[in-house]
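Milestone 3.1: sequence recovery, worked example.
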């Protein structure tokens, strides 16, 4: 199936092609026609399945037929649980609204930063991506109204409920007009999600995409015991001594990703950071540079790993271990694909050994460890 078979308009198809989206993912193929038909949708699909584009594209197409909204009266509301996801979803809206015949202004708002700039930027916004608490604060400040909302999206509804947003969500629902299209996306189903589904959705189209299972058989794994202060030199030593040309490095924070990429570049290794504070254009360009060989190393956070798909990627390095075994498996699953063997390397501080043991147990594979105390890393 192609995107052209899903009922998308010519301008959107041009932007899809421009941004190197090839065949639609299963959630996109099922959700886009249903949303375009005005149906309520319940989409159950794991993180990284392509669900953001599955609602962004049809929502933007619906704006081709909508008159401009009144100032501070948004018509599309997307609720998300975290700042990172708000930024990510907002970037996808901006990416696909470029060069559309009818300009559509979107904005992401979230807590933890000053509310005043967000209040100013809400002028003439039609699509708002928001965390629940900040949205209610903006409504209370009379910075916007929800009375014109005709499309509501709950993205990662299970995480929103798990993070204790139930009361805020119910308060928001009471402020919305009764007649609207509702789209609910979740990685899992459970009692809480079922309750929200029954409350919001009218005869929904239910789309359930089976979770992909990572195949680790083609991935050779190696672990290195290394102290925190020697991780940087060890990373540069491995890349240079083994002449690694295409490497994906994972860190646990945006700050660390920037720092590792900076030090790699300072030591003559072509590297770029990839995280949620980079614009969508910068992220797309970084992936293109790695695929083309214009850069050798991408340093990414877990949030960004969900959108990374590089054919025949030879090496993944866990500079820092993730908290969950599931994230570890997802990380190393970026290599060893399409019948091509890959290498996954993990840096482990001695204090992290029990945690790494749990990861190996959940993974069902033992990783041979190398002690690096005797490695001469001087000059790296």
């Amino acid at each position: 199936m192609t995107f052209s078979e899903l009922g998308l308009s010519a301008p959107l198809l041009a932007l899809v092609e421009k941004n190197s989206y090839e065949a639609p993912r299963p959630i996109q193929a099922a959700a886009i026609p249903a949303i375009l038909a005005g149906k309520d949708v319940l989409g159950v699909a794991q993180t990284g399945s392509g669900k953001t584009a599955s609602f962004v594209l049809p929502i933007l197409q619906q704006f081709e037929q909508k008159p401009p909204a009144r100032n501070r009266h948004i018509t599309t509301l997307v609720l998300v649980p975290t700042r990172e996801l708000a930024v990510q979803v907002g970037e996808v809206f901006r990416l696909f609204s470029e060069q559309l015949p009818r300009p559509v202004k979107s904005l992401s708002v979230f807590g933890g930063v000053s509310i005043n700039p967000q209040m100013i930027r809400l002028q003439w916004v039609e699509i708002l991506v928001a965390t629940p608490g900040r949205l209610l604060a903006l409504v209370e400040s009379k910075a916007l109204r929800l009375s014109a909302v005709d499309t509501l999206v709950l993205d990662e509804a299970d995480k929103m409920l798990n993070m204790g947003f139930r009361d805020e969500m119910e308060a928001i629902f009471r402020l919305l007009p009764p007649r609207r299209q509702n789209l609910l996306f979740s990685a899992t189903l459970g009692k809480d999600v079922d309750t929200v589904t029954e409350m919001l959705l009218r005869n929904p189209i239910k789309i359930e995409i089976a979770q992909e299972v990572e195949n680790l058989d083609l991935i050779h794994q190696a672990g290195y015991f290394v102290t925190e202060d020697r991780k940087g030199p060890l990373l540069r030593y491995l890349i240079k001594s083994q002449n690694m040309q295409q490497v994906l490095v994972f860190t646990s924070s945006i700050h660390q990703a920037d720092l590792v990429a900076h030090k790699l570049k300072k030591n003559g290794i072509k590297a770029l950071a990839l995280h949620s504070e980079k614009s969508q254009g910068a992220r797309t360009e970084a992936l293109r540079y790695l695929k083309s060989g214009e850069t050798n190393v991408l340093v990414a956070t877990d949030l960004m790993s969900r959108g990374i798909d590089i054919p025949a990627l030879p090496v993944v390095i866990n500079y820092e271990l993730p908290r969950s075994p599931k994230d570890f498996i997802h990380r190393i699953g970026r290599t060893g694909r399409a019948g091509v063997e890959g290498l996954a390397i993990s840096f482990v501080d001695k204090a992290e050994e029990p945690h790494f043991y749990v990861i190996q147990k959940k993974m069902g594979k033992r990783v041979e460890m190398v002690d690096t105390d005797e490695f001469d890393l001087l000059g790296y």
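Residues 3-208 form a domain with the Rossmann fold fold (CATH 3.40.50.300). The radius of gyration is 22 Å.
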